[in-house]
Amino acid sequence: MNCHREDFCNKLKELKGIKIDPENISKIPVHECNKLGVKLSQADEHAVFNDPSYWTSMKAMDNASDMLKRLKNMFGFKIYIFTWRPWPNRATITEDEEEKIDILWDQCTSFLG
């Protein structure tokens, strides 16, 4: 329903200067994909996933809304989407990054009350 692979590659290039082809991402954890063409570390991957802008600016697929409407109409079901991500992952944040990441996450979740 979203452009996860493309957005991951864009954020990875922005944060780490590492360029990979979205078509070569075949699973998560991304660093375990064999055909990336570069050595991607777990820390590089976590830098993307720990960045709140990755999650808050992720684009939806062009036809995501239409796809959901077609499924709803085809089967007559109500569609509920539940999602949860284990980010930020405190175990992967260095002390130097902790304050910056906390501020960014606080800014993007402040509407939650």
Gross morphology is: globular
Q: Helix and strand string, N-terminal first? A: HHHHH
Estimated helix fraction: 40-55%
Distance between the termini: 27 Å
Sheet with the most strands? none
Oligomer: single chain
Instruction: Please tell me how large the radius of gyration is.
Output: 16 Å
Please, what is the average pLDDT?
86
User: What is the number of helical segments per DSSP (H or I, 4+ residues)?
Assistant: 5
Uncertain segments are none
Number of DSSP strand runs: 0
Global structural class: mainly alpha
In short:
Helix 1 packs across helix 2. The chain is mostly helical and 113 residues long.
Structure description:
This protein has 113 residues and is mostly helical. The protein has one domain. It contains five helices and no strands. Helix 1 crosses helix 2.
Which features would summarize this protein structure in a list?
113 residues, mainly alpha, 48% helix
